[in-house]
Design brief:
Strand content: 25-35%
Strand order of the largest sheet: 5-4-3-2-1-17
Structural class: alpha+beta
Shape: globular
Number of helices: 5
Radius of gyration: 18 Å
Number of strands: 17
Distance between the termini: 46 Å
Largest sheet: 6 strands, mixed
Oligomer: single chain
Length: 296
C-alpha cells in the first residue's frame, strides 16, 4: 500500500574500475540517506563499474553477474539493514551469451520486489550497448513495493513517451529512470547544453503528460574510452526529481557528486489529473497506427 508522501534519496556518483570500492561508496551513501529519512533510494545505471559500453570488448562481460548472486546479496542486505526500498542497476548474466541491463528493486525487508530489463537498447558512438545487452522481455509494468508502485525504466527508455505512458496506464505511482548519459568532450558548448536540456525536457514532459512524479538519477564525471576511439564521455549529472506538473523538486549539479533526500507528495497526482484529465481525453480509438514502424 503506497504512502501519501515519500522521501526519495538519490545517489549521483563518479565511479572507478574498482567494483569493490564503488560498492563500498554506494553502501555508505545508502546508509547516509536512510539516516536522513529516505524511504526510497535510487542509484544510477550500472553503478558498480565504469560505463564499459563506450567500446565493444568481450573482456567487459566479466562485470556481468547471475541473478541471484553477489549483487543480490549486497544490495538486498543494504535495503534490509537500512529499511529502504532500493532501486539498483545490474549487468545481468541470464545465461551463457545472454545478458541484460536490469534494474532490480529490493523492498525494505530485503526481498526482491521485482525486476525491469531495459527495453530500448542504443547503439551509438560511445554507447555500444547492443554488443552487451539483449532487449528486455518483461514489458512495461510497475513494481509493487511498500512505498507504492514504481514505474522503473532505464536510461535510453527515457526518450520514449510510449514507455512512460504504458507504466502510467498500469497504475504506476512514480516514474524512475536510472541512467548514464553525458557529453562528448569534443562537442561545442552550445551543443552540450542542447543535449542536456533535451534530456531534462523529455522527462519533465513524461511527468506532465502522465500526471506523475519523475526521478532521474545519472552518474557524473569524465570516463575515458578504453579503446581510444573516441574522446570519452563527460557524464553531466543533473539528476533531478519533478512533481506531476514537471515542476522541479530537486536538480543536482552537472559537475560533481550529490546525495540528496527529496520529499515527494504522491497525492498531488490525483489533484493534477483532475485539473488536467489527459487520460480521460485520450482518443484510444484512433491510436492503432502507433504500433507501426512508420506510416509512409
Amino acid at each position: 500500500m503506497k504512502q501519501n508522501n515519500i522521501k526519495v534519496g538519490i545517489i549521483q556518483h563518479t565511479f572507478t574500475e574498482d567494483v569493490a570500492k564503488n560498492r563500498q561508496r554506494n553502501l555508505a551513501a545508502i546508509r547516509s540517506l536512510a539516516e536522513e529519512g529516505a524511504d526510497l533510494v535510487v542509484m544510477s545505471e550500472l553503478h558498480d563499474s565504469l560505463y564499459f559500453c563506450q567500446c565493444e570488448d568481450v573482456e567487459h562481460f566479466r562485470y556481468a553477474e547471475p541473478h541471484p548472486g553477489e549483487f543480490f546479496d549486497v544490495y538486498s542486505e543494504a535495503a534490509r539493514e537500512n529499511g529502504v526500498v532500493l532501486v539498483a542497476s545490474s549487468f545481468e548474466r541470464r545465461a551463457s551469451g545472454l545478458y541484460h541491463n536490469t534494474a532490480v528493486v529490493f523492498d525494505s525487508d530485503g526481498s526482491v520486489a521485482g525486476r525491469y530489463r531495459k527495453m530500448h537498447i542504443p547503439d551509438d558512438p560511445g554507447f555500444y550497448e547492443k554488443f552487451y545487452f539483449t532487449p528486455g522481455d518483461l514489458g512495461f509494468h510497475p513494481i509493487e513495493t511498500s512505498v507504492g508502485r514504481l514505474g522503473v525504466l532505464v536510461c535510453w527508455d527515457q526518450w520514449y513517451p510510449e514507455a512512460a505512458r504504458l507504466m502510467a496506464l498500469d497504475n504506476a505511482d512514480i516514474l524512475i529512470y536510472p541512467t548514464a548519459i553525458g557529453w562528448n568532450p569534443d562537442d561545442p558548448e552550445d551543443e552540450k547544453q542542447r543535449q542536456r536540456e533535451a534530456w531534462i525536457t523529455i522527462q519533465r514532459a513524461h511527468a506532465v503528460a502522465n500526471g506523475l512524479p519523475v526521478v532521474s538519477v545519472n552518474r557524473v564525471g569524465f570516463e575515458e574510452d578504453m579503446s581510444d576511439v573516441t574522446s570519452g564521455i563527460d557524464f553531466w549529472g543533473s539528476s533531478f526529481v519533478t512533481g506531476p506538473q514537471g515542476e522541479f523538486l530537486y536538480l543536482a549539479p552537472d559537475d560533481k557528486s550529490a546525495e540528496e533526500v527529496v520529499n515527494v507528495d504522491l497525492m498531488r497526482s490525483e489533484n493534477v489529473r483532475q485539473w488536467w484529465p489527459f487520460l480521460r481525453d485520450r482518443r484510444i480509438d484512433a491510436y492503432g497506427d502507433l504500433t507501426k514502424r512508420f506510416l509512409k
